[in-house]
Amino acid sequence: MPLPLAYAAFVLWHHYRQERFIMGIKWVLLEIQVPRDVVKSPSAMELIFSNAFYHKSIKGFWEEYMIGAPWLWFSLEIVSIDGRVHFFVRTPSRIRDLVETQIYAQYPQAKVVEVEDYVWNVPQYKKDGDWNMWGCEFTKLKEDFLPFKTYKGFGDDLKTGVKEEFKIDPLTPTIEFLGSLPKGQQMWIQIVIRQNIKKYHSKATGKNVDFYKGAVEFLDTIMEGYVRLHDVDKPNLPTAKQVFLPEHLKPVVTAVNDNMMKIHFDCGIRVVVLSDKKITTDEQFNNLRRNSRLIFRQFAQPYLNELDRRSGTQFDAPWSDPTGMALTKIKKRMLNFYRMRTFFHPPIQYAIKYPAVLSMFFPSGKPFIFVLSSEELATLYHFPGMVSETPSFKRIESKIAKPPSNLPI
Question: How big, in percent rounded to 5, are the helix, strand and coil portions of the chain?
Answer without folding.
Answer: 35, 20, 45
